[in-house]
Amino acid sequence: MTDQSPPGAASGAGATPEVEATAHSDLASQLWMMVRALWASPVRNTLFVLAGGVFLVVAATAYGQIRLNRWNSPFYDALSHRDLRGFLTQLGVFVVIAGALLVLNVAQRWLGEMLKLKLRQGLVHDLIEDWMLPRRAFHLAHAGPIGVNPDQRMHEDARHLTELSGDLGIGLLQASMLLAAFVGVLWSLSSAFSARIGGHVVSMPGYMVWAAVFYAGSASLLSYWAGRGLIARNAERYAREAALRFSLVRVNEHIDAIALAGGEADEARHLELDLAQVLTAMRALVTGLTQLTWITAGYGWFTIVAPILAAAPLYFAGDLSFGGLMMAAGAFNQVQSSLRWFVDNFSTIADWRATLLRVANFRSAVLTTDELHRSESRINLLEGAPGRISLDHLEIASPGGCTKLKEQSIELEPGERVLVLGEQGAGKTLLFRAFAGLWPWGAGHIARPKGEEILYVPRAPYMPPGTLREVLAYPRAVERFGEAAFAHALSRLGLERLTPALDQARGWDQALSTDEQQALAFARIVLHAPAWAILDDVLGSLDGRTLARVIDVLAHDLKATGVIHVGTTRTHDSVFTRVLHLTTDPATRRLSRSRPLGGAAMQPG
Question: pTM for the complete prediction?
Fold first, then answer.
């Protein structure tokens, strides 16, 4: 691949992120970014309908809970008075209320799950759409650690974020509605309470409400104090998990080379190091969760008796019957549990915040990656006159220095065969990428012919998923080419045995050898017959028979196609009519390794 490392490129996936410093590191900005993404998504109206349905169902459930709480008083009074008829009547009332609540619970579950599904659809659709804009994914991949593991951010992190958002959002809505509903109930039950303190009667209207507020407030403050570090610990854990997954995928992709070299033990050592970092992050998370559990579990156990203790003064003063005591205890539980929603969900909220941070930072990077290195000089990529490619004082900036052509002003004619020679490390792949507009940093001009097709052939050919016919036509539609053209292209490169498999879908990168994949790349050029083909040192990797076929194809089938081959040796002088020379100057036009992102320096992550 490239002879120079891109600026800011990660050496691996194991950097410490979030801890990522971006311009969108605060909660409000991250939430607003997600809202904008969902607002622009095609599922926006569906989200509104589902959210409205959830609101109505939760409101109906809150009303049902109030009716169920009122039911406590006559039911327990009937028990205390040994009133069998009243007891049976209240059992019937309970069946009706509980049945209605059951239907509402099922409806809420369905609406909630559908809401999470549509949230994920909208968010991932937005991320993929922005990520797959021309050249953006390439630039992001070379923008430092934020571009590592985009699959993790768009798949696992986006899934986790939308599921947590749905659950927490519905839970918060439910807690808010129950709080609004039961504060009134609890206030009315304790509105006339008074206590004798030092010979004075002190009126304390609604004291059970204040008791519930104090109880839940103290729990919330202690929970925040004990668990405030969980956000960073969750973010660190997700980053380490992504690094381990990246390493496992890398080993699996290169397992042939690893086995041939006998490098399993060395790879296992690297994987063990990545696993150790995951386990270290998880141990820190376990410590934080354990500290938080002292608070949440302690308050949880005390909650068994707290409502009875709060209502006991009213009961012993004779202001409440036994049924009224149970009704007051139920209302107290509802109020304090609604107020304690933050406590009960603190670890989940920390998890949600960490996931939101990763997804928001990734989306910010996707949207701003085109602005990277705004302070750097750029190559002027122009639309030139048809039939020619022009290069004028071209210089390509890289962390290793400046890559440039010894020849200053160059005009390439139609059908011309040009060899660009460069030593190892001279930046040949940077030049190849500059032709394609993928590497914009440097100076000078590249004028590409307007309206003419240019095919860029990298060293490792890409085999997209689909049928062999679709692989050959990529990225065009198969309908653009005649039926016989596919078979002709294959036969010209010695691949006629694949003609019966044209409409078969396979993993062609696995089904074909490296030489066959290279031959298939040239069969694609034959099929497309472009005005220009630019090759990244491809000829040097071909075997004798394949090379002979390619040279014959260039001489006959593609004689009207202009060919630029960026390579190391000049062993094919008979093919090329012109030679250009690539040189490097380490002292000039160096590209800084640190790239700004949205005005903030990129940090590992």
Answer: 0.63
